[in-house]
Amino acid sequence: MLDMPELRTISGVTGVMGCLMALVMFFQRRSYPPSIHGMGHWAAAPLVGFGSALLFTLRGLVPELLSVGLANAAMFASAALFLGGTKRFFEQPLSPRAQTLLWSTGLGVLLFMRFFTGAYSIRVMVMGALLGSMGFWHAYVIWRQPVQGFATRFTTVVLLLTASIIAARTVTAPFLPPQDGLFTPAPMQVVYLLGIAFGTLLTSIGTVLMASEHLRQELERLVTRDSLTGALTRRALFTNGEAELARASRQGRPLAVLMLDLDHFKQINDKHGHLVGDRVLVDFVTRAHAVLRRPSVLGRYGGEEFVALLPDTDAAQAVAVAERLRASTCADPALPCCHVSIGVASARAADSLGTLINRADEALYQAKAQGRNRVVQESQAA
Predict the structure, then answer these.
(1) Does 177 sit behind a cis peptide bond, omega within 30 degrees of 0 on the bond before it?
(2) Is the torsion defined by CA of 206, 71, 81, 134 positive or negative?
(3) Distance between CA atoms of 229 and 226, rounded to whole angstroms?
(4) CA neighbor of 328 nearest in space, from 262, 277, 256
(5) Which of 6, 220, 304, 378 is catalytic?
(6) DSSP string computed for 11-43
(7) At how many degrees (to 10) do helices 187-224 and 4-31 cross?
(8) Residue 310 near residue 255 (C-beta atoms within 8 A)
């Protein structure tokens, strides 16, 4: 079994690891865009944890107000900072009331640990209940996010395991032999200190992974999504379209393409200005997405022209979708009304995506020639 000096070593190593992770998070924060929130809280959390571990290690050498009261309050503050950073990261910052409650609790921990003279097990249960609740709350915040990846799952598991170790120590505290403090040699103390050490380290790693995953998603969005409308970029559209065309050919499934052009869009720009024109484009994409269903996708082909890919959709179904798009009304009634002309084409054997889009474009040309605000299928355009 580990003796007291070795338990102090674990506590000291925990602090050093926290300090190193704080430095990593600090420099990572400087290299990440400001759109990734919470990095400051995540960097401060292990640093505050380092201060807590250092004060615990100095117990007997410094006043108990520091080595017991402030050390426990700093441990609680570290957990609160981790939680606050995660809430900010997911654009769900803690309310002022919640922040006030957390800081008041931290102050209460400092005073309780300093002046309470009862059994050590009671202090363990009070602190364990607070830290365990914070850990489970933190895990719940991440778990309930709609989009889950490896980083979020990893961090959730780490938080649950750490909180479970704290809960186990809390529940067993009344039934263990009397202890004088954190460094009393006992198996549960060893498990607890190791759990806190690795929990802090792995939680910091998890937050770094979440930030990196978020950055990758932002970069991917910049490459694949039109910055104004959110539709696929032309490059992403062709990448997606070629894959869908190959799948349709391989499986013998239908595939249709819609070429869409907003009628008299230049007049809207000239009369109302380009800012209003931009809003009209965004509005059109919003209502198009409301009509289209997965796995259909919409891409911006250029200017006010868009292309919709409709996998597993035959010609008749494609025309029906196009008519729903044409008949859809502006999502924002304050914008000038803008109709749409649509050309429809269906994939044939040995088609390339370029030839398929060209046929839809020819059908669109006929829709324009016939007076706009209409749907023309390629057979009608021939």
Answers:
(1) no
(2) positive
(3) 6
(4) 262
(5) 304
(6) HHHHHHHHHHHHHHHHHHHHHS-TTS-SHHHHH
(7) 10
(8) yes
Q: Is the pLDDT of residue 178 over 60?
A: no
Q: 262: part of which helix (H) or strand (E)?
A: strand 255-262
Q: How far apart are CA 378 and CA 256, in angstroms?
A: 11
96 touches 135 (CB < 8 A): no
Domain 234-381 has CATH 1.25.40.10: no
The CA angle 250-241-234, to the nearest 5 degrees, is 165
Q: Cα Rg for the chain, rounded, in angstroms?
A: 30
Residues 312, 281: contact at Cβ < 8 Å? no
In the chain, what are the domain boundaries? 4-224, 234-381
- 304: annotated active-site residue: yes
Amino acid type, 248: A
Note the pLDDT tens digit of each residue in 152-170: 999 999 999 999 999 998 8
pTM to 2 decimal places:
0.70
- Any idea which residue has 């819609």 for tokens? 258
Question: How far is residue 212's CA from residue 218's CA, in Å, rounded to a whole number?
Answer: 10
**Backbone dihedral region of 239: left (phi > 0), alpha (psi from -120 to 50 degrees) or beta?**
alpha
Residues 6+ away with beta carbon under 8 Å from 355? none
DSSP string, 182-243: TTS--HHHHHHHHHHHHHHHHHHHHHHHHHHHHHHHHHHHHHHB-TTT-SBPHHHHHHHHHH
Give the model's pLDDT for residue 1: 45
Asked if residue 380 lies in contact with residue 318, where contact means CB atoms within 8 angstroms, the answer is: no
